[in-house]
Q: What sequence folds into this?
C-alpha cells in the first residue's frame, strides 16, 4: 500500500529529477519551443516541495491536489495547467484515503491523464506529454517500473513525430527529429514514481 509519505517522496524525487535535468529540458525546448521548459518545471517543483513541507497535507490525494494547485499558480506557459491538472485530478480521484493500492493509483492516474488530454486537446502521436503519459498509465496497472519504462519509451518515440499541438506545431516538418520536452519531463515524473518505491523498500514496484 502507498501512504502519504510515499507520495511526498514521489514529489521530492520529481523535484530532484527536474532540477538535475533542467538544462536538458531547456535544450529540447529550445529546438521546438520557447526554451523555458526546464526553468519553468524547476521553479514549479521547487515550489511544490516547499508547500508540502509548509502545509503537510494528510493523505495521498491531498498531497497531489496540493502539488497540482501549486504548479498551476507557479509555472508559466502550458506546463503549469497541464501538470497541475494531472496531479489535481489524480489526487481528487484518490479521495481522502490514508493509503491506496497501486491499482487505486493506476485508476486515479488514468483519470488525470484523461483530464490532460481534454485540456490540451491532444491525442497519441501528436508529439506531446501524452505520448509518455498514456503508455505509462496503461502499464501502471502492472507495476511502477513498467510505467516508468513505458514513459521513457514513449518520450523517445516522439523524436520522429511531427508536432501537431502547441508551439512546436508551428514548425511543421522541422519539428521532426527532436524529442518532445513535455514527454521528456513526463517520463521524469514516472521515473520519480518508481524511485519513490525503491526508497521505501516496496510499494508495488
A:
Amino acid at each position: 500500500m502507498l501512504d502519504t509519505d510515499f507520495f511526498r517522496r514521489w514529489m521530492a524525487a520529481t523535484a530532484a529529477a527536474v532540477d538535475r535535468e533542467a538544462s536538458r529540458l531547456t535544450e529540447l525546448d529550445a529546438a521546438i519551443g520557447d526554451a523555458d521548459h526546464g526553468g519553468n518545471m524547476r521553479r514549479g517543483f521547487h515550489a511544490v516541495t516547499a508547500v508540502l513541507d509548509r502545509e503537510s497535507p494528510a493523505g495521498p490525494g491531498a498531497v497531489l491536489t496540493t502539488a497540482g494547485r501549486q504548479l498551476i499558480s507557479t509555472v508559466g506557459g502550458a506546463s503549469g495547467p497541464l501538470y497541475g491538472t494531472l496531479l489535481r485530478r489524480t489526487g481528487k480521484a484518490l479521495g481522502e484515503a490514508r493509503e491506496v493500492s497501486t491499482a487505486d493509483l493506476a485508476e486515479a492516474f488514468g483519470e488525470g491523464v484523461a483530464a490532460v488530454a481534454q485540456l490540451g486537446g491532444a491525442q497519441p502521436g501528436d508529439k506531446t506529454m501524452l505520448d509518455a503519459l498514456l503508455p505509462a498509465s496503461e502499464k501502471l496497472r502492472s507495476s511502477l517500473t513498467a510505467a516508468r519504462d513505458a514513459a521513457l519509451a514513449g518520450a523517445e518515440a516522439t523524436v520522429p513525430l511531427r508536432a501537431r499541438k502547441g508551439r512546436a506545431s508551428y514548425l511543421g516538418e522541422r519539428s521532426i527529429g527532436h524529442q518532445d520536452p513535455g514527454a521528456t519531463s513526463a517520463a521524469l515524473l514516472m521515473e520519480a514514481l518508481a524511485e519513490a518505491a525503491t526508497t521505501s523498500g516496496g510499494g508495488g514496484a
Summary: The two ends are 11 Å apart (CA to CA). DSSP finds eight helices and two strands in the chain. The mean pLDDT is 92.
